[in-house]
């Protein structure tokens, strides 16, 4: 078992695995790396927001993260902002 999966609850493991297998390889990297770094510190509300983002079409999520498309108000949340900021650093 890798270090990111050690000592986390089942919900976080499921979200982490889902974030690594979004569908689009680009999202696997953008969201997966973010989840690996932050899954242990997200609260229940943030986990729910991440789950909701992962349910969106891959191309939409990629375009929102990359800034290629405007984020619809209902998805414009702190978790998406955290993902965007994380990926600007890496």
Instruction: Provide the succession of SSEs.
Output: HHHHH
What is Rg?
12 Å
Under the CATH scheme, the architecture is Orthogonal Bundle
Biggest beta-sheet profile = none
Unreliable parts: none
The helical percent reads 55-70%
Number of helices: 5
Mean pLDDT: 92
Reported by name, the CATH topology is DNA polymerase, domain 1
Give the number of DSSP strands: 0
Give the structural class. mainly alpha
**Gross geometry:** globular
Query: How far from one another are the termini?
Result: 24 Å
Classified in CATH, the superfamily is Flavinator of succinate dehydrogenase
Task: Write a compact overview of the structure shown.
This protein is 63% helix and 0% strand. It has 90 residues and is mainly α.
């Amino acid at each position: 078992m890798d270090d990111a999966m050690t000592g986390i609850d089942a919900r976080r493991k499921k979200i982490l695995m889902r974030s690594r297998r979004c569908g689009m390889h680009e999202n696997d990297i953008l969201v997966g790396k973010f989840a690996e770094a932050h899954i242990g510190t997200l609260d229940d509300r943030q986990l729910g927001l991440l789950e909701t983002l992962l349910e969106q079409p891959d191309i939409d999520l990629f375009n929102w993260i990359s800034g290629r498309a405007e984020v619809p108000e209902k998805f414009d949340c702190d978790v998406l902002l955290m993902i965007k900021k994380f990926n600007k650093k890496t």
